[in-house]
Specification:
Number of strands: 4
Number of helices: 2
Strand content: 5-15%
CATH topology: Alpha-Beta Plaits
CATH class: Alpha Beta
CATH architecture: 2-Layer Sandwich
């Protein structure tokens, strides 16, 4: 599970780290900081509680870990797909 915080949206209300201190922390300005690593599934409920209570909708929670994501056959794991990733002719 991965948690992401949009730093452009977060204004530091602090609800996330007040409700889920095992998942979220605050920086020197009081803005939300999420862990850069994947979280164990045991913390999913707390992560979602913090995200759902963010009045700025700055937090997203993705329950799938990177290894769970389907990958196109024959492509390396980090390659993006779509029209913008096609090589130019």
């Amino acid at each position: 599970m991965r948690v992401r915080v949009d730093g452009r949206r977060c204004v530091g209300h602090g609800r996330c780290y007040a409700l889920a201190p095992e998942v979220y922390a605050d920086d020197e300005r009081g803005h939300c900081v999420a862990p850069a690593t994947e979280l164990p599934r045991e913390l999913e409920a707390q992560a979602r509680r913090g995200a759902e209570n963010c009045p700025e909708h700055a937090i997203s929670v993705d329950a799938r870990v990177e290894s769970d994501r389907p990958r196109p056959e024959g492509r390396p794991p980090d390659r993006r797909t779509g029209p913008m990733s096609r090589p130019r002719s």
